[in-house]
Prior knowledge:
alpha+beta, five-stranded antiparallel beta sheet, elongated
Amino acid sequence: MARRGGNGERREPVMGSADAVAELRLGPDDRPGAFRATMPDRPSRRTSFPEFEPEVTRVPKASRSTRGTTTGTRRKRGGRGFLARAFYWSLVAGIWVVLGVAGFVAYEASHLPAIQNLAIPERPPTVIIQGQDGKTIATRGDMRGAAIPLKALPPYLPKAFVAIEDRRFYDHFGLDVIGLARAVVVNLTAGRLREGGSTLSQQLAKNLFLTQDRTLSRKVQEVVLAIWLESKYSKDEILELYVNRVYFGAGAYGVEAAAQRYFGKPARQVTLSEAAMLAGLVKSPSALAPTRNLKAAQDRAALVLAAMEEAGFIDHATEQVALAHPATLAKKQGPDSSGYVGDWVMEQLEDKVGPIEGDITVQTSIDPKLQAAAEQALTETLNRSGAKFGVQQGAVVMMDTDGAVRALVGGRSYEDSQFNRAVTARRQPGSAFKPFVYLTAMERGLTPDTVREDSPLQLKGWKPENYSHEYRGPVTLETALAYSLNTVAVRLALEVGPAAVAKTATRLGIASKLDPNPSIALGTSEVSVLELTSAYAPFANGGIGVTPHVIERVRDAKGRVIYSAPGASRGAVMAPPHVAMMNRMLQQTIAIGTARKAELPGWPAAGKTGTSQDFRDAWFVGYTARYVTGVWLGNDDSSPTKKASGAGLPVEIWSRAMRVAHEGVPVAALPGMRTPSPYEQAVSGTEIIDEPVTTGATAPAGIPRPSAVVGGGAQGTGTIDNWLLDKLFGRN
């Protein structure tokens, strides 16, 4: 294209010589750097026309280093751009995270009941179980203690919880953001969960409405409910609910129950050091319970005191005084074995009163003095001799002759094992079952003087043998029972029929299933200590069947009686002459037989020992006219003992417990037996009550009538003749 000159004339380009053209052509160094960098080795095919090229200003080589300044500036601007983009996307991601968290919280909150329908649950009922004297021996129920108003507690008690659990309790809205952030930092630094960020409000929400599951879902719900609690209740109301609901270990819920459980006093009376210990327990109540680890509980209490001093709730001097006098456990109020009684009461309670909807008080027949005596006799005997005889466990049941249970020990230690061996366990009674065999024989016309053969016996390959492996030949039934001769018992069972023996035992009170085979004579069918003891009661009370019972009456929170035990008598289950015969024989067991080590000075007593196969179980059930007591020893896994027999440790335990039971009680003869002599009265040092044999009595319907002639030669009329009783039993 033609260019115009300054005067407006049109000028055409003039191409001169080759040299002129070459002079006008740009060299490689004259080309723009961008073009050279793009195509460094490729020659340009474009013809250069200076008239049409932009004017290029050459930069001296010495000055080219200044180009780096432009590049550095560009790099700085690029860095600022990267930071801007990072900030932008971080902001976007943060918004999405917030939206996601909000959505998750909303989702979890939607699974909670409507907030307007939420209310503080009613405190579950407390069951107070009392002994015969009206004193508490056990408590049961999820919530043990009564709710105590915050203003009724010592000021330092609630402050102790605030100091150690939630220092900013009065400042946050239910969620302590600062505390939560600190907990996150501590846990991340430690690499494990060392500190929690839950507020008291969150802990209360968890205790009231949620499970103990440690999941994210439950945690979110906990926060939502904590904020709701804060909006509905004042801080003091929340704190009051907290101290009355939190778990303190050892089965104690609420500060009142915990104070009673550990210190034997109301929460209103706890000292500063005791308050610090209570506040320290809630972190880990099972592990820190002072009944389990007193030293750990005291160490934790010291941390609580330090936190209280740091928070300004107490001064340094007060802290030092409390540290110098750490809290200790109160002396135990009742026997440890009372826990077995409490469990047994709870098993029966709903059948007596229906669903428990409010606080109730249960008065039992348990005599705390006898309960302690039975527990002490069992535990001390096992501690001293249990290892020697390979015996780890035992059980004791003591009842009066009406069936009211006065003491029940279900094991060596309730704290170590809550399995009730007195009520739930069923074991072979061995020879302790033989009285039912002999009673059946008496009801068929035999007497204590009837003679039977003690000699080897074989039944289809079964060879019952005596414990001593010796045989006496012809013996009276009285002798055979006193020395627990197995061959005679089996012969009697075959004579009267195993089914008849089972029927007799059931009539007297055995509730367990009995196998009616010849071995029933040796006690191969399993029974509980409770039922075997109650089945002996008719021997002690003159033939009246009893139902063992422990609940006397139940009162509601207003003191109204909502249940009163009916009479426990099941009516006559034995005719009086049969009672007299059995008492005559069973007395000989203590006088000359296997239980002759039994010691109950001045008191006529009777009973029967029992040892099961391979020495797995050792029994003694004995009685007077006032009490019946059964003792069992063995191992939970039914492993054999080291030849522990009923004549040994069980008789010793029975003697110790029964001596306590009969202190100051007037001596009485067993039914059907003669009255103790004046000499026996002088020896015993107690008043003697004359209880003559019942005469002129008619055998109740369904009970075998006594024979009028020894040996059953004639069928009796059911009327008992005084002269015949004198001759039969040597009554003076």
